[in-house]
Amino acid sequence: MVFYIRDSKAWKNMFGHGALEQKKDMSTATRFNLKYVSLVVLIIQTTSLVLTMRYSRKVQEDGPKYLSSTAVVMAEAMKIVACICILFYQHGSSVPGLLAVLQEEIINKPVDTAKLAVPSGLYTIQNNLLFLALSNLDAATYQVTYQLKILTTALFSVLMLNRKLDVMKWVSLVLLMAGVALVQMPGETKAAVKEISASSQLIGLGAVLCACFSSGFAGVYFEKILKGTSSSLWVRNIQLGVFGVIIGLVAVFLNDRDAVFKDGFFQGYHMTTWIVISLQAFGGLVIATVIKYADNILKGFATSLSIILSTVISYYILADFMPSKLFFIGAGVVISATFLYAKEWKKAGPTLPTHTNPTNL
Prior knowledge:
- By secondary structure, the protein is mainly alpha-helical.
- Helix content is 74%, strand content 0%.
- Helix 8 packs parallel to helix 10.
């Protein structure tokens, strides 16, 4: 269904006011539909990744658990393959053309390529931290707390890119912190069906906070690099992925080498594991494609609906979360702060990024 009848031009088209205007309105309707398709994709990707990751790390009881460090490596490897396939298609499905681009943009520019080691390392750390967080926090609490990445991204944008925040954005960031604090406060009814200990909650909270700082710095650093280069986003993601695989393998060796030598790299892998890996690898690339059709308000809607869906599914399906009054109040404040931050005010300065990881938006 196309919802553009209330537009004055649409009314003209209904009464036959010219083919040109009809064509323009169809274009408007298409853009309108693409925006809401983008909204749906954003909600599905954000919610499904969090819930499947939580399910695979904590709720699912059958068999040994997979190593999150190896899952991060596999996600980076899949991302590289996906980006190479996209470049292959963009250059006429020509292998020589693809190889020429890779040589020109990656091999012949070692300094530019090396610059990606910093954000890639931070993203790899961040992805490992998110696995740790969802092993110790329910999906709903994680979703709300992880919105602090808006705060860290804004602060690093001010410090590194000399951006200006208007008064309303500062107010929204203060509200955001207050909302997250309320969510983390213990309440009388905040008890999980499968109890999460206080120590686990503390570990999960620490992991989320570290991931927010890593995400904010890496995202702003990556944006700064992109401003000084003409390379495509897909080339940059290949560079990020290569460093991500290398750094991820180092993390596997340092943290899980004994387990890998004993039971193998793919120990504990099952269908849910591969779904999580695929969502991490391909989900962000899909979002990178559709995000241009979604404005900040739609992103706010996506975040809000994702939090609500995560809460409902955590309570009714995963059965590992029972929200308290403070959680509802805090979540409401976080959602309101997200919309307030996304709103474009008349005297607002340059728009700050609302997401940071180009492949984990």
